[in-house]
Write a structure and sequence with these properties.
mainly alpha; 14 helices; 0% strand
Length: 306
């Protein structure tokens, strides 16, 4: 009896892969970046309309009203003794509040971004407190502390120390409403940068001050500049808290915003807009200085290193 051989199927030849399999990239939707022309035009027109109505027209109106009666009337309103006193007090207040907030902002940001400790979240909440509290309420807090019937009022009166309705009260109120700006500008920046560069500098033998001046400060200089600009603008333009603690004493405790309010309430519109235009020019000057510093820094970085 002859046996029939069993035929097995031929083995399946699996090709040897000589390279990693190619991954199929998902199709990228261009609808998020390449909007139709009419959509882009609508967005641009909306933004320009908003800026025109709420920024450019009000700014133009301020300068138009200030110069409506000519240069002589404008200059007379600026050099008036009460106006000069308000300008001087505003600059003094900003010159005190901004450096103090700079020191606090850098110290607070460095502490929060570089270290872990108990109460860290509570410290962040305290830094944000002036953002959630009305400036008028912050002024009333100082009245409660330093007023004649306040907690420290009798002691201050016995020692002939005047805080309310004087320059110290105005400076304290300004510091309170402006101290979050620099810290809040630096905290996310320093957290994103991490602490590797500082640790490397310390391992190489640099002291704490050298590490700060040569490693930390160059890395945060732009964030620090933006924070200082915001802090300075708010310090010069603060109204609510300063209005509560100043007492509105002409020639003594009126800052520029308070002087504008008094002149406007007296229907002296030209003088009010003249002082307002000067306050606006100070803000624009601050922005111009920022732009100049940025331009010079970019030029220095573009120079070839010898």
């Amino acid at each position: 009896m002859t046996s029939t051989p069993i035929a097995f199927p031929p083995p399946v030849q699996t090709p040897i892969q000589t390279s990693a399999p190619r991954r199929t990239e998902p199709a990228i939707s261009l609808s998020a970046t390449l909007e139709p022309l009419w959509v882009r035009a609508l967005l641009i027109i909306t933004a320009l309309t908003f800026l025109t109505v709420f920024l450019f027209i009000p700014l133009a109106a301020v300068f138009f009203e200030a110069f409506k009666k000519g240069w002589e009337v404008y200059l007379k309103a600026i050099v008036e003794p009460d106006a000069l006193s308000a300008i001087k007090l505003t600059l003094i207040t900003a010159a005190i509040a901004v450096p103090l907030n700079l020191v606090f902002g850098v110290a607070a940001a460095w502490t929060i971004a570089k270290f872990e400790f108990r109460g860290k979240q509570f410290l962040l909440t305290l830094i944000d407190l002036p953002f959630s509290v009305s400036p008028v309420i912050s002024g009333l807090i100082y009245v409660l502390l330093f007023g004649a019937q306040g907690w420290l009022g009798p002691w201050l009166r016995e020692h002939d120390i005047k805080i309310l309705f004087a320059v110290p009260g105005i400076v304290l109120a300004t510091i309170f409403v402006t101290f979050p700006f620099i810290a809040r500008e630096l905290i996310p920046l320093m957290e994103a940068q991490g602490s590797e560069e500082e640790e490397a500098a310390l391992v190489l033998g640099a002291s704490g001050w050298k590490t700060f001046w040569h490693v930390t400060l160059p890395n945060i200089k732009w964030g620090l500049l933006y924070g200082v600009i915001l802090c300075n603008a708010r310090a010069m333009g603060e109204f609510g808290a300063v209005s509560v603690v100043s007492g509105h004493i002409r020639g003594e405790t009126n800052t520029m915003p308070l002087q504008v309010e008094i002149l406007y309430n007296e229907y002296n519109f030209t003088a009010a807009f003249a002082v307002a235009s000067l306050l606006t020019l100070l803000a624009l000057l601050t922005l111009a200085l920022k732009s100049i510093v940025e331009w010079r820094t970019r030029e220095n970085q573009a120079l070839p290193q010898e």
